[in-house]
Specification:
Length: 258
């Protein structure tokens, strides 16, 4: 009997410890935090009875937030997207394939717009500072290492014909749903304050370079396979092995990079 009780309390203790390591939703019914309730709806079991109470509550909270938000509030779009997902399903959790589909549609719209418009031009002017170059854009001025400035400049300075051909290639890849295709699109999102060059090295002499301006994104179509991705992000070295078998998005840096 003592052994049975010991086993019971040991199991209970382990269970409680494991629960504490994760998210504790014990008092979730009393919560008035949109993000906390949204996280619960994402993580909870589909048959959890608390869902029937919390889902309509958080939807009303989101509606109230949108209604009373400032016209320039950046969170409004996020709230609208979460609300739309909750109207269609039990939670805002989406699958990897659904996320890829959303990214794909955004990219198609972007590159269609690029084909319809003229290629934008950005001027990169060297500064007097040693080992640095100043990048002048409409919103900010950023210094990047001289070691990559000339190469970045060269990669960005493509002719209108080259730019159009690349855009068409990317669009064809986005529309191609054949799993047997030998190529894939790679999207690099640069969230940092610095312009970067992402290098993708495959087997043998297979190498690709992609220039990505600060707070922007760029895409490239490459053969499927194994690659070593490297980049210098605001002086910090990035390196990661990637196996490319389906469209891939890689986000580098962050909005508060220094």
């Amino acid at each position: 009997m003592k052994k049975l009780l010991l086993f019971f309390f040991t199991t209970l203790f382990i269970g409680l410890s494991a629960q504490k390591k994760g998210k504790d939703y014990t008092n979730i019914v009393k919560s008035k935090n949109i993000y906390e309730i949204n996280a619960f709806l994402r993580d909870a079991h589909p048959d959890d009875p608390r869902r029937s109470v919390l889902k309509p509550r958080v939807m009303e909270m989101m509606k109230d937030y949108i209604k009373n938000a400032h016209p320039e509030d950046q969170k409004v779009k996020e709230m609208q997207e979460m609300l739309a997902l909750l109207k269609r399903r039990p939670s805002t959790k989406i699958t990897f394939d659904e996320m890829n589909a959303i990214i794909k549609q955004k990219q198609i719209a972007k590159y269609k717009a690029e084909l319809a418009a003229k290629q934008s031009t950005v001027v990169y002017t060297p500064s007097n500072a040693k080992n640095a170059i100043v990048v002048n854009t409409s919103s900010t001025t950023v210094a990047i290492p001289d070691a990559e400035a000339e190469e970045f400049n060269m990669l960005m300075s493509v002719s209108p014909t080259e730019h159009k051909n690349k855009t068409v290639q990317i669009l064809n890849s986005l529309f191609d749903n054949d799993p047997m295709t030998k190529e894939c699109i790679v999207l690099i999102e640069n969230k940092s304050d610095c312009n970067i060059i992402v290098r993708m090295e495959g087997i043998g002499t297979t190498k690709y370079r992609l220039a990505v301006p600060a707070h922007n994104e760029s895409s490239v179509v490459i053969p499927k396979g194994d690659y070593l991705f490297t980049s210098l992000v605001c002086g910090a070295q990035y390196a990661s092995q990637k196996t490319i078998q389906k469209p891939l998005m890689v986000a580098l840096g962050s909005s508060d990079s220094k």
